[in-house]
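anyone seen this seq b4? input:
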Amino acid sequence: MGRREPAWRVTTAELRSALQEERGDGERAATYLISPFGARMNRVVLAGTLSAAEAAGRDDPTSFWRARLDDPLGTVTLTAGTFQPRAMAQLRAAPPGRPAVVVGKVHHYRGRDGRGDVSVRLEAVRPVPEAEERATLAEIVRHSLDRLDLLDRLHAAPATPDAELRAAGAPAPWIRAARESLRRYPGSDRAGYRRELAAVVRRVEGIGLEPFAVSGTPGVRVTVEPPRAPPEEPTAGDRAEEAAVLDLVDEAAGVSVDGYADVEELFRRLAGRGIEAERAEAALGRLEEGGTLEEPLVGKLRRA
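predicted toks r here
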């Protein structure tokens, strides 16, 4: 891949419902899980309560760890092994029974009986205060309702041009995901899932956030377009942008209290150097894919 995949904000229920795969072309092409509710997921962000981590390796029990994350709509299994050493260390150190925000790649396993199971291979797990967990759940609800609105609109008028949907605030990845979701799950119970989201809303209530309307009132739309895939062979300009990213990461990490560079601050500083968000994201993706940078915590970067 030439860029980082976006991390979809989803509930455990939507993640577990996503049993249709889409495989890209090429040796390193990404694999996606398509949900009935408008998500096309390679990476995800979830929030909930973390269980105790358990060693589960076959040959060496300590080489592979797993835990569960519970949100108001269910449970999903989290895993981390020797290929994710920092995530594995974070998972082992995380206190059980505490709120947490996790980011990771989706993994779909289908057994011999044909039954599918979805889990998350961790990139990072971070225990958070209850208020931050609820704030993340609020964002998940907003995204979920907006994607359901988009599905309903396309179901009623499938010929609606993408340009018209983008002008109304729908990000391009959501449009692609919505069309594929409707094709693969023509009979999905979107109204039923809206009702289920009420349990997440109840979890969010009481911390001064804006109220949510589960009846389908649009929430806050995300309008940032995804980064375009860079050329197979990075140009001299691409390499110059990568060097700028590394310089700023080193500078920010060197003066920060926790030793990490904040992603949002990094993007603001790159913009000040004339590097727009799309190109900054592409440069960041190349550096992460090449193993030069890592994101051990959500929104935090450092050299690998």
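Residues 135-204 form one domain. Residues 99 and 229 are 35 Å apart (CA to CA). kinda curious what u guys think
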